[in-house]
Specification:
348 residues; alpha+beta; Beta-Lactamase; Helix Hairpins; Heat Shock Protein 90; 5-stranded mixed beta sheet; 8 helices
């Protein structure tokens, strides 16, 4: 006895497929029942003169469970064939129905996987187009912004005595707005460049040297204490990738800290597949409702940092993008009044 699907005949020595006009499956698909059983086709008026019965492969027994979509559209059948008469028990009929449902489940799953792959490809294309647009738009904004900034400086340095107090306030407002827009444009350009960075080039990074490097380039005007918590001597990663992630997190830990002395702890551990990092600070903490907004591009939760500058919502979006690009993840935990801990992983 042979099990087959969609009208295919797998009996040794038989044909590989049958045309629909003589196929048993065509009758099963057009019938009212979910299973069609023909115990002896030689005695059935529908099939007694069928070439599949009278000639090779000389079919006698047929049982076919109809394969239907969720909308009730018949696609084919799951068949049991033999060259001698047979009968199926209730248990065997139930088993045939169950297997047919499993076949349709696999078909539907494969269909959804194909649709997801197509959607993923389309989204990736849209993201690439958006990234290119952001880069071009930000790049084209740089020249006029530079000109505006230069003209404001010229007025403030060379012609400020010809401007009244109200005019000076307006110039300061324009200057601050221009500076903020400049920072946003720079952030967009950096974000776009990092999206296209090749991170496959990895090398050993000494962790003690890394913490000294972070101290040096943080350039804070307030006291900052760094602490390294790890049993590792080094990690093997793309140094540009790690620098950008850590600098964004360290800068935020300093800028949005309300303590006289900023404390930052960098922790590093590893599993077989990933390196795990955390950056912990002693800042004011972040409310639960704001935690979910942190990694959204252009989303800001603070009016301004301790230096009076307003963020652009690009830094943490960059962190999320870079960790995911390296098959990792990022998360955040925070306690109001005690501080915030960012955790991220990077694939080895």
């Amino acid at each position: 006895m042979t099990v087959t699907a969609n009208g295919l005949n797998l009996i040794k020595g038989g044909v590989s497929e049958t045309s629909r006009d003589v196929a048993f499956c065509a009758h099963a698909m057009l019938g009212e029942n979910d299973i069609m059983v023909v115990e002896d086709a030689r005695k059935d008026k529908r099939f007694h003169d069928n070439p599949l019965v009278t000639n090779d492969p000389n079919l006698v027994f047929y049982a076919g469970a109809v394969l239907k979509t969720a909308d009730g559209l018949p696609l084919g059948t799951l068949c049991v064939l033999d060259t001698k008469p047979r009968q199926l028990s209730l248990e065997q009929l139930h088993a045939l129905r169950t297997i047919a449902k499993q076949v349709m489940y696999r078909f539907e799953l494969q269909k959804k996987q194909t649709q997801l792959l197509e959607l993923s490809s389309e989204l990736q294309k849209k993201n690439e187009e958006l990234s290119r647009f952001a880069y071009v738009a930000a790049h084209d904004l740089k020249t006029p912004l530079t000109t505006i900034d230069a003209l404001i400086n010229l007025v403030q340095q060379e012609h400020i005595d010809r401007v009244d107090e109200e005019g000076k306030k307006i110039l300061d407002f324009i200057k601050n707005s221009s500076d903020r827009l400049n920072r946003m444009v720079e952030g967009l350009l950096k974000f776009s460049r990092l999206e296209n960075t090749d991170i496959s080039n990895k090398k050993p990074i000494d962790l003690k040297n890394l913490i000294q490097y972070l101290k040096k380039i943080s350039g804070s005007k307030i006291p900052v204490k760094f602490k390294l918590n790890t049993t590792l001597d080094e990690v093997i990663l793309n140094d540009t990738l790690l620098d950008q992630i850590l600098m964004n997190l360290v800068n935020n830990a300093i800028k949005y800290n309300n303590k006289d002395v900023v404390e930052i702890e960098l922790g590093v551990s590893e599993t077989d597949s990933h390196y795990w990092f955390y950056v912990k600070d002693n800042g004011p903490g972040i409310s639960e409702e704001n935690l979910t907004k942190l990694f959204t591009l252009f989303e800001t939760i603070a009016t301004e940092d301790r230096f009076g500058e307003k963020g652009n919502g690009i830094g943490l979006a960059t962190v999320k993008s870079l960790t995911e690009k390296n098959k990792g993840s990022v998360s955040v935990e925070s306690i109001i009044g005690e501080g915030t801990t960012f955790k991220f992983s990077l694939s080895k």
